[in-house]
Amino acid sequence: MQKIVKQSFSWVFSILLGIVVALILSIYVVQPTKVLGKSMEPTLHEQEQIIISKLPNTFNYHPNYGEIVIIDSRVSQKRSFKDDLSDNGLVRLLTGNHSDNIWIKRVIGKPGDVIDIKDNQLYRNGEKLNETYIKEAMNSTNPVEVQLPYTVPKDSVFVLGDNRNHSRDSRSIGAVPIDHVLGVALFTK
User: Fold this and answer.
1) Which residues contact 66 (CB under 8 A, 6 or more apart)?
2) pLDDT tens per residue across span 59-93
3) pTM for the full model?
4) Which of 5, 13, 154, 158 could form a disulfide with 109 if both were Cys (CB 3.0 to 4.6 A apart)?
5) What are the residues whose beta carbons fall under 8 Å from the beta carbon of 103, sequence distance 6 or more?
6) Which residues are CB-neighbours of 67 under 8 A, at least 6 positions away?
7) Which residues are known catalytic residues?
């Protein structure tokens, strides 16, 4: 009987240890996720699986221009460990809950950059950007809720979806604080 209890304890301990290690890896290192929505077409498509490096978030890294990032769109709300846990892909997989506040976007502006849109064209620091990755030209009927030209604040990034005419992004929520950049897309499956 004692041997059975010892083996049962060993199994339970191993399973719990595996879950803890998986959570730590998916919160701080790497996480698979699924694209929800069409805001990043033609680069990423709905239901496409991508792998995210969480190391940039872990080490407070400022992403580069053009990088595809995962963000928490609740920019006026401070992030907590509870947010990291609930936004985690493993937890979402186990619970089936998908948060509407987690978005996939492309970095367009870094701290100090001046972003502007003129004649449906995007400008950074007065220079028109050549964006070969966007789905189609921006439509002037899309509402821009931030005041343009827009200067990206310190420790923030300005992000846009590649499908500009069907994307909620920094044009509506403003710049995204670095601590709301949850990771950088590594590759798609």
Assistant:
1) 106, 107, 133
2) 777 899 999 998 888 888 887 766 666 655 544 55
3) 0.81
4) 158
5) 39, 70, 71, 73, 159, 161, 168, 169
6) 106, 107, 184, 185
7) 39, 105
3-state secondary structure the chain: CHHHHHHHHHHHHHHHHHHHHHHHHHHHCEEEEECCCCCCCCCCCCCCEEEEECHHHHCCCCCCCCCEEEEECCCCCCCCHHHHHHCCHHHHHHHCCCCCCEEEEEEEECCCCEEEEECCEEEECCEECCCCCCCCCCCCCCCCCCCCCEECCCCEEEEECCCHHHCCCHHHHCCEEHHHEEEEEEEEC
pLDDT in tens, 139-186: 866 667 888 899 999 999 999 999 999 999 999 999 999 989 988 888
Residue 14 structure tokens? 């191993």
Residue 30: its pLDDT value, please?
A: 81
